[in-house]
């Protein structure tokens, strides 16, 4: 933990290769820990972890709470539907309420961009020690998902040593709704940091050409990129060409609830051109793994026969790997 320098985890753009390596190493150790009874680790005993989700979640919230419990932390859940938000309380005052109750880490999810960052800045300015862990904010970032995807791929390429080195030189093709995906943005930072070459594939309405420079532009307020040499980033409109040299494929959900305009002519046309099927996977040079961050629109962005083929579909492994990755993040933030 000597080189861990993050009080908060907001965005993977600030992660060094040592940060990624540390998280993967810890996650690999935690993955082997018994999940019940006396086998639980006392690493966060006496610490309070609060899941402050202003936006709905199944996988992220549940796995953070499981992760905290496996580290023997006390876990506090927040439900927006039954909270004082309905009486007009702001997200800031809600967060400060849980800080006052002694939360050591607030895992925050919000539909608006930069809310976790604003909370972190406010807490720092008033001298509070509570850490903020971004559980997903607007179209900005989902760091723990980017890390669990990285861990899942590292385990696939190098089961005995799932390290950052196992991604170097690999082509990862990400297909679908990049525009509305905070997951894709986090994966762009993490994958290219580890030397993977990323191909973004989709129609111009969902994969704007501006994404070609995404990892060349650190977020506002961040002066330097901690990664000296990243993997490449390309954009393709042709699924066949994008799959031919792929070592792994990630397809993304069409986030219809975030689409403010009619960005697609039809869902049927999208599926025909960009939906993954077993037949289209024959375009790949080898048998390659398929990932999806969930939830899945079965039969739209990915076919049911892929979802049911455990030899190539890594979605269940992504879900299970979410727990040790989030254990690692909570451990690092909770023991500063």
Summarize it.
By secondary structure, this protein is of the alpha/beta class. The protein has eleven helices and nine strands.
Explain this structure to me?
The chain is an alpha/beta fold and 336 residues long. Helix content is 35%, strand content 13%. The chain contains eleven helices and nine strands. The protein has helices spanning 17-30, 59-70, 91-100, 115-125, 143-157, 182-193, 239-244, 267-274, 278-281, 304-307, 315-334; strands spanning 48-53, 74-79, 105-110, 131-137, 171-175, 197-201, 233-236, 248-251, 290-291. Helix 2 links the parallel strand 1 (48-53) and strand 2. The protein is globular and about 55 Å long.
Give the low-pLDDT segments. none
Structural class: alpha/beta
Radius of gyration: 20 Å
The succession of helices and strands, N to C, reads HEHEHEHEHEHEEHEHHEHH
Helix content: 25-40%
The share of residues in extended strands comes to: 5-15%
State the major sheet: 5 strands, parallel
Structural shape: globular
Total number of β-strand segments?
A: 9
Task: Explain the layout of strands and helices.
Layout: H1 17-30, E1 48-53, H2 59-70, E2 74-79, H3 91-100, E3 105-110, H4 115-125, E4 131-137, H5 143-157, E5 171-175, H6 182-193, E6 197-201, E7 233-236, H7 239-244, E8 248-251, H8 267-274, H9 278-281, E9 290-291, H10 304-307, H11 315-334
Parallel strand pairs: 1-2, 1-3, 3-4, 5-6, 5-8, 6-7, 8-9
Helix pairs in contact: 1-11, 2-11, 5-6, 5-11
């Amino acid at each position: 933990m000597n080189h861990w320098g993050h009080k908060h985890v907001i965005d993977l753009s600030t992660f060094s290769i040592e940060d990624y390596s540390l998280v993967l190493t810890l996650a690999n150790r935690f993955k082997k820990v018994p999940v019940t009874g006396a086998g639980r680790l006392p690493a966060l005993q006496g610490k309070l972890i609060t899941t402050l989700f202003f936006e709905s979640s199944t996988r992220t919230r549940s796995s953070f709470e499981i992760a905290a419990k496996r580290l023997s932390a006390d876990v506090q859940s927040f439900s927006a539907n039954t909270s004082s938000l309905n009486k007009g309380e702001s997200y800031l005052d809600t967060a400060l309420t849980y800080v006052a109750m002694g939360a050591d880490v607030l895992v925050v999810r919000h539909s608006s961009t930069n809310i976790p960052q604003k909370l972190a800045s406010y807490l720092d300015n008033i001298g509070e020690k509570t850490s903020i862990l971004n559980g997903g904010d607007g179209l900005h970032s989902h760091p723990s998902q980017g890390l669990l995807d990285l861990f899942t791929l590292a385990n696939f390429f190098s089961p005995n040593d799932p390290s950052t080195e196992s991604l170097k030189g690999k082509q990862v093709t990400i297909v679908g709704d990049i525009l509305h995906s905070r997951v894709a943005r986090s994966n762009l930072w993490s994958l290219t940091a580890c030397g993977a070459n990323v191909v973004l594939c989709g129609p111009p309405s969902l994969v704007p050409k501006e994404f070609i420079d995404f990892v060349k532009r650190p977020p506002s307020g961040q002066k330097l990129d901690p990664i000296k040499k990243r993997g490449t980033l390309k954009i393709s409109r042709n699924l066949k060409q994008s799959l031919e040299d792929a070592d792994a494929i990630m397809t993304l959900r069409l986030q219809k609830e975030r689409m403010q305009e009619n960005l697609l002519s039809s869902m049927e046309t999208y599926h025909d051109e960009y939906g993954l099927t077993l037949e289209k996977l024959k375009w790949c040079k080898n048998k390659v793994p398929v990932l999806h961050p969930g939830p899945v629109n079965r039969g739209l962005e990915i076919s049911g026969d892929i979802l049911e083929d455990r030899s190539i579909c890594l979605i269940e492994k992504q879900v299970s790997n979410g727990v040790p990755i989030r254990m690692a993040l909570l451990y690092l933030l909770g023991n500063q």
